[in-house]
Amino acid sequence: MAAAAFRSFGPPSVLQLETDFPRPTRRKGELLIKVVAASINPIDWKTRKGDVPRFAVTRPKIPGGDVAGLVEEADPGSQFKPGDRVFGCNGNQIFWSTYGTYAEYAVAHEDSVLPIPEGWSFNEAAAVPLAAMTAWQAMQPSMPLQGKRVLVHAGAGGVGSFAIQIAKAQGAWVATTCSGRNAGFVTETLGADLAIDYTKQKFEDATAEPYDLVVDLIGGDYEWRSLPLLKRSGHFANILNSGFLHQYGPVKGPALLTYYTARGMLLGAISGPRYTFTIMKHQARHGLAELAELMKAGKLKVTIHEVLPLAEAAKAHEISETGRVRGKLVLQVAKE
């Protein structure tokens, strides 16, 4: 099969299209999926760069966790059959497995995928799972969000754009940090109540009222600047805090991340606000089923920054690494 894979850590150029890569082998309980679309998530290029524990990354490595496509093979008696349109997360985007979703075929466990809601394209569906499930799982300890005040950092990106929509669907008041060029997007398209242009204003000064929930997608000093803004009964959701990794590198960074996360959780347990660190669980029962209902109801939308062919996976990583992606980047592997 054709697949975009890297055999050494490094810049986007190490991600190369290979046309004779072995197909993955389906095990019991898994589906073999003919991939139509996959989407780009920052963890994909962080893995390629080696900004994760390198010893756990099997190489050669096909990146990608999100998948939308057609069932090719399933177990006898499975709830899925060949030809079904499905989407989900295969759970192999980082550790141990060679096989991600930047390929013509991928495997995923049955409990990690769902039927694509009617009216949704493969490209749109592929953009949802990892980012939207991460947002859902981070916010879940604070649910229901009806009447609560929520601050989402980096609201114009993949996870942030879903976090805003999920909070609004549940009746929350939502503020978000973004650049000035994205202010209209986060308010008019995503529904945020307040856009805070971080280039012109400190988010601490945007409103005097405390928040019930802060969703932090940036890390670094955004964390300690955000904590005083929370009610004592509030919740700080740390999502794969990358500030330490960028500042201190792949060795010292994870150690500092572990220390500060443990400290935050301990302090939150003693005096509040509650502090949680989210590592996304890929099974559909951890939010994807609820998200599919929002998709069906028209309460969750996808903004696709750009669609690129599989052969341009390296270019997609270059674009994603700029940090200026509005919504999601999608790789179209096959025609719909």
TrEMBL record:
One Pfam family of this chain: ADH_N
SUPFAM superfamilies, alphabetized: GroES-like, NAD(P)-binding Rossmann-fold domains
CDD domains listed in its UniProt record: MDR1 (cd08267)
Domain Enoyl reductase (ER) as annotated: residue spans: 10-331
Protein name: Enoyl reductase (ER) domain-containing protein
UniProt source species: Tetradesmus obliquus (Green alga)
